[in-house]
Amino acid sequence: MQRELQVRDCSGCLILPGLIQAHVHLCQTLFRGLADDLPLEEWLARRIWPLEAAHTEESLYWSAMLGAAELVLGGTTAILDMETLHHTGAAFAALERIGIRATSGKCLMDAHPEGAALELAESTDTALAEAESLAGRWHGAAGGRLRYCFAPRFAPACSGPLLRAASDLAERCDAQLHTHAAETIVERETVLRTTGTSEIAYLESVGIAGPRAVLAHCVWTDAHEVTRLAAQRTNVVHCPSSNLKLGSGVARIPEMLDAGCRVALGADGAPCNNRLDVFSEMRLAALIQKPRLGADALPAGRVLELATLGGAHALGLADELGAIAVGKRADLVVLDLGAPHLAPNGGDPVSHVVYAAQPSDVRDVFVDGRAVVLGRELLTAPLEEIAREAGRCAVELRRRAGIG
Amino acid sequence: MQRELQVRDCSGCLILPGLIQAHVHLCQTLFRGLADDLPLEEWLARRIWPLEAAHTEESLYWSAMLGAAELVLGGTTAILDMETLHHTGAAFAALERIGIRATSGKCLMDAHPEGAALELAESTDTALAEAESLAGRWHGAAGGRLRYCFAPRFAPACSGPLLRAASDLAERCDAQLHTHAAETIVERETVLRTTGTSEIAYLESVGIAGPRAVLAHCVWTDAHEVTRLAAQRTNVVHCPSSNLKLGSGVARIPEMLDAGCRVALGADGAPCNNRLDVFSEMRLAALIQKPRLGADALPAGRVLELATLGGAHALGLADELGAIAVGKRADLVVLDLGAPHLAPNGGDPVSHVVYAAQPSDVRDVFVDGRAVVLGRELLTAPLEEIAREAGRCAVELRRRAGIG
């Protein structure tokens, strides 16, 4: 069926390819502001594990609705998401309703990490069976806009057989593999101690490498590992806000790009950011490298590539997304240049996008040619209802988790 | 005269003391996006010097109008500003019209820094005479909302006698002294080579120290200098975006606070940021210390103090500004908590302000009890005219400077 031709006046605006965030946790949106100024290990044990374990189908749905609404209103048209152990179907239902392009997966954990709530680990078989079933239901749903990913949490929370099976399933289903890697020095040392090998090499040994694999963070990688990541065309997702806020460090992104690595950007979850704002991530990605490498490190144009083509690679959709071009899908952002912070015109528009633009400048958002945001209004769900229900669920969730 | 009682519904909002930025350059707003990804020395010589020299009275007025509009719409109610050598009266006229609280001063330069446009240096006497005349005209104008500051650019561009005379004039006029210090390692080494003493000690020797003195940056200071800054109650202005973008470094703010230093925040100018957004500066100030010192370094509450009480000290107005309290002036920001990125409610509101809020959340802004922004609309000047005139002046300015 041919779509009706739409003509929209975009004078005074900049049209961008849809921006992509390749590492988010929508199940954590309700935890925003509940876990500040804590290092990763405490942040997980004291806040994130108990809060994730306290989710219900309903609270998870509204957490994903809230996060997806914020993302799409701010110009993010596609995400790679990791949910918690349970209720991943509710997240997909929210993603289907909001209209964002999303690849998401249930978090796989069959080992019991230190400090984790007891509920947060399953048997290897239970975890894999549910993942396979979810993939059957959601991979390719909503006309291909929704896809499934196999998402082992991180090496310290997963057995070797689970990681290997996740890799095999991803291959069999033609799906992405989404995990965390080398986020902190503690994680790096834990993996080295328990497996006898460095984290990137260990992940490679269980099949978590190559164009299907998406490794969030990669802060603690050495030059040899960077060479391996590049050679395998493994995707790295840089999460600058999260890496700073949790005190994890500054990933060596310019060195990774020089080595030929594929790099995307992501906000990670609301409690470690606390925004889900691709403009904040782009600006910060550019800024944090400069004291170390000089003011010309990671210039604006290079950063915009991370949030477009880099994200498209991480989603395994480089043929379809990441640029405005014949044959690519119409995932588009219309950026209104009228605000004072984007004036005067006449400079480099890429500089405005990376260094000055904000979510509030996003006027219209199209996903696969369909308008999801027009005139700064979300068309797919009432924002008041999302805020009200998310607020109610957050109160109950905090009570169940005994937090706040 | 008694003011009319106004009642405004602020349900669903947070009321903050007006946010203060203690280091900005409104004359540079028209240069936004023209000087990216360059280190400070090149940034000055190739872009900022020629552009400042090309300003006219008219282009400077619209540059200040644009910057002040962005600032006040984004919740900044008071600034400490440094202009260029000429046309400072035009900046004051803009500040008077926009309705922001501002302390501003003509930039004093009587030495000719390497690479500077020839026009950018005056005789010591000419510089001081104009500054004194401007102080007579503007210090205490607009019912005390506007104040003058004596603003030597930085030690490498000023003779010792100019610095000493600026300090004496500030004392005599009861005005602040606003300069840059220890921004880059190059600057530190230049001052050491030319004066034989370290920069902070040199500035102290010419009277640039104490509660009147406001030193922007202070990235390259040692423990001894930090102790001196604290003992003298000299104000330090932290400009995290600018320090990252120009590759200058990360100022040791937690160490300065531990030593008892007075610290404020500032966006610096549009070409080195490229926002003039106090929320970006607060968030970044918190984030950039954490990889070095741990995730609990510079927590949200401490950062909010820098943007309120810290700024009030830098303006020399700690008795009048920086908190909502009986006896303080009614400089207020009404922050609308309705956007998805500030949901759910129930966490720490200070966390929302520092880590998640954005300029677009600012609903109303009052300066000295007078509404300047209501319902996100600037009441004091038409934004369309500002954007149009700023755009026109920017084109002509770039042509005169031979840039862009």
Structure description:
Two copies of one chain form a homodimer. Chain A is of the alpha/beta class and 404 residues long. Chain A has one domain (13-401): Metal-dependent hydrolases (TIM Barrel), CATH 3.20.20.140. Helix content of chain A is 42%, strand content 17%. The first copy, chain A, contains 14 helices and 14 strands. Chain A has helices spanning 40-53, 57-73, 88-98, 124-138, 160-173, 185-195, 199-205, 223-232, 240-245, 253-258, 278-293, 300-314, 349-356, 383-401, and strands at 13-17, 19-24, 76-82, 101-105, 107-108, 146-152, 176-181, 213-217, 235-238, 262-265, 332-336, 362-367, 370-374, 377-378. In chain A, the strands form two sheets. In chain A, strands 2, 3, 4, 5, 6, 7, 8, 9 and 10 form a nine-stranded parallel beta sheet that branches. In chain A, β3 (76-82), α3 and β4 (101-105) form a beta-alpha-beta unit. In chain A, α2 (57-73) packs parallel to α3 (88-98), α4 packs parallel to α5 (160-173) and α11 crosses α13. The N and C termini of chain A lie far apart (52 Å). The model of chain A has no long low-confidence stretch (mean pLDDT 95). Chains A and B meet through α1, α2, α9, α11 and α13 of A and α1, α2, α9, α11 and α13 of B.
Give a topology summary:
2 copies of one chain form a homodimer.
Chain A: E1 13-17, E2 19-24, H1 40-53, H2 57-73, E3 76-82, H3 88-98, E4 101-105, E5 107-108, H4 124-138, E6 146-152, H5 160-173, E7 176-181, H6 185-195, H7 199-205, E8 213-217, H8 223-232, E9 235-238, H9 240-245, H10 253-258, E10 262-265, H11 278-293, H12 300-314, E11 332-336, H13 349-356, E12 362-367, E13 370-374, E14 377-378, H14 383-401
Parallel strand pairs in A: 2-3, 3-4, 4-6, 5-6, 6-7, 7-8, 8-9, 9-10
Antiparallel strand pairs in A: 1-11, 11-12, 12-13, 13-14
